[in-house]
Specification:
By secondary structure, the chain is mainly alpha-helical. 62% of the residues lie in helices and 5% in strands. The protein starts with 19 loop residues before the first helix and ends with a helix. It binds arginine.
Length: 463
């Protein structure tokens, strides 16, 4: 039998145990214990299948099932003792099962390898996270819809180059993020559908000579089908990469919105008041209220995209099938998932709580010659001027207002007519910000009626 220091799982071939450094670089239990519930679910499905095809007796399978449930409760209650010497979650569970049920535990690994086991566990774990992301995204979208509904007709400046461009509505701005986060949602659902196939039964890499039933285990674990190629089943990690891709894009969206909240909550903008629940104070400057949650959300893209790049680098150039390199997949995904979920929840909370300062929004919307395009459009519509010329006339009026230190609506009719004599007093109607936004009725435009139509459309889709 095996040397007493060598590994109980493969000690037959080994005379000595591993060097301490070897143990340190090799062990994954420190992090893969997070997949304990998935590992036990996979083993239970495998045991039930082995019993059905006659590889385990019903008694053996029953003992294994009970043992696995006992281990699960030990882990959940913090009583389980994880051992680094046992390397990973799979061997920790199996060793404990042997202590609890004895000999049948050794039969559980029939027609299975840690290679298909870890691929299965990790798919189940990532699938759970996709479901959590779906929940988080939906909650955020509902918070945004609430803000959009409240402020469908509040006017604010719309920006390009962060320079005042044209007035838009608050609801329109919120709904832009609804579009982004619902696209993230559809990417999440897409990724889930593609990854929901079972590696279990691929064994080490080549399949097995035992007459197993892969449909049965796939079904028991909620997978749509068993994976069709055993080499691919044990070595594919594109499901984890796709998770990181989707998380990266979503974190990028969160980051853009977070940046806007940082700007909007500044004393210079005063567009929004963030709630105390999502801000911090300064230990030295008593007046400060810092948008820390927004800043941290803005930063999360760094580590999430970092995880994405790291796993791409781990996977590139790996020959088929399994290589130990793949053990490096988990920490990246765990960290990215934790931080994505946290960022989604923090953003939802901030959006729900934030109070728009409608006076400041409207004042800002009305400054910076924001209705210059409306003026040019009026000249095209009412005096049949080609748009390029109307643009020129309007530019001259903006320059005049600038030199007088006022905005466009403050110019007199005489001022206007000195630049273009066909201008009439009607022009003042389009220079107001409310008329400006109300006129933008094109599909997807900023008019409150369009915004309300989009809110209604999304509410119906999400109902
Ligand atoms: N801890 C390993 C991992 O996370 C499990 C698979 C080990 N397989 C092997 N052939 N050594 O990838």
């Amino acid at each position: 039998m095996s040397n007493s220091n060598s590994n109980q799982m493969w000690g037959g071939r080994f005379a000595a145990g591993p060097d301490a450094i070897m143990e340190a670089i090799n062990a994954s239990i420190g992090f893969d214990k997070r997949m304990a519930a998935q590992d036990i679910a996979g083993s239970r499905a495998h045991a039930a299948m082995l019993a059905k095809v006659g590889i385990l007796t019903d008694n053996e399978a029953g003992a294994i099932q009970e043992g696995l449930l006992a281990i699960l409760s030990e882990i959940e209650t913090g009583k389980f003792e994880f051992s680094t010497a046992l390397e990973d979650i799979h061997m920790n569970v199996e060793a404990r099962l042997k202590e609890i049920v004895g000999e049948p535990a050794g039969r559980l690994h029939t027609a299975r390898s840690r290679n298909d086991q870890v691929a299965t566990d990790f798919r189940l774990w990532v699938r759970d996270q996709l479901d959590a992301a779906e929940t988080g995204l939906l909650a955020l979208v509902h918070a945004l819809l609430g803000q959009a509904e409240a402020g469908a007709d509040w006017v604010m400046p719309g920006f390009t180059h962060l320079q005042t461009a044209q007035p838009v509505t608050w609801g329109h701005h919120m709904m832009a993020y609804v579009e982004m986060f619902t696209r993230d949602l559809s990417r999440v659902r897409d990724a889930r559908k593609r990854m929901n196939e079972s590696p279990l039964g691929a064994a080490a890499l080549a399949g097995t000579g035992f007459k197993i039933d892969r449909d049965m285990t796939a079904d028991a674990l909620g997978f749509d089908a068993p994976m069709a190629n055993s080499l691919d089943a044990v070595s594919a990690r594109d499901f984890a990469l796709e998770f990181l891709n989707v998380a990266s894009i979503s974190a990028m969206h969160l980051s853009r919105f977070a940046e806007e909240l940082v700007i909007w909550s500044s004393a210079q903008f005063r567009f929004v008041q963030l709630s105390d629940r999502f801000s911090t104070g300064s230990s030295i400057m008593p007046q400060k209220k810092n948008p820390d949650a927004a800043e941290l959300i803005r930063a999360k893209i760094g580590r999430i995209f970092g995880a994405n790049v790291a796993l791409m680098m781990v996977m590139k150039g790996l020959p088929l099938a399994y290589s130990k390199d793949m053990q490096e997949d988990k920490e990246q995904v765990f960290d990215a998932a934790d931080n994505w979920m946290l960022a989604l929840a923090a953003m939802e909370g901030m959006v729900k709580d934030m109070a728009a300062n409608t006076d400041a929004l409207e004042a800002a919307a009305a400054s910076g010659f924001s209705t210059a395009t409306d003026l040019a459009d009026w000249l095209v519509r009412e005096t049949n001027l080609p748009f390029r010329e109307a643009h020129h006339v309007t530019g001259a009026l903006v320059a005049m207002a600038e030199s007088k230190g006022c905005d466009l609506p403050d110019l007199t009719l005489e001022d206007m007519q000195s630049v273009n004599k066909e201008i009439t007093a009607d022009i003042f109607d389009v220079l107001g910000v409310h008329n400006s936004v109300a006129s933008r009725q094109s599909y997807g435009g900023t008019a409150p009626s369009q915004v309300r139509a989009q809110i209604a459309r999304w509410k119906e889709i999400l109902a």
